[in-house]
Amino acid sequence: MQWSKRGAHLLLQTRTRVLNGELRSRFQQWYPNFRVETQQDQEAA
Asked: Is a pLDDT exceeding 80 seen at residue 37?
């Protein structure tokens, strides 16, 4: 399997946002109803 240059670039952008803690806020901008499960939510399930 090989990555295209565009695919590798997009993956790197996503990974960078995850590491910087920016991905959640970006999703919340795009999807205002976006909800993140907390540890308590996972334990209750």
From this structure: no
pTM of the model: 0.58
Print the SS3 string covering the chain.
Answer: CCCCHHHHHHHHHHHHHHHHCCHHHHHHHHCCCCCCCCHHHHHHC
Q: Across residues 29-42, what is the average pLDDT? A: 76
State the amino acid at position 14 in one-letter form.
T
Cα separation, 45 vs 8, whole angstroms: 35
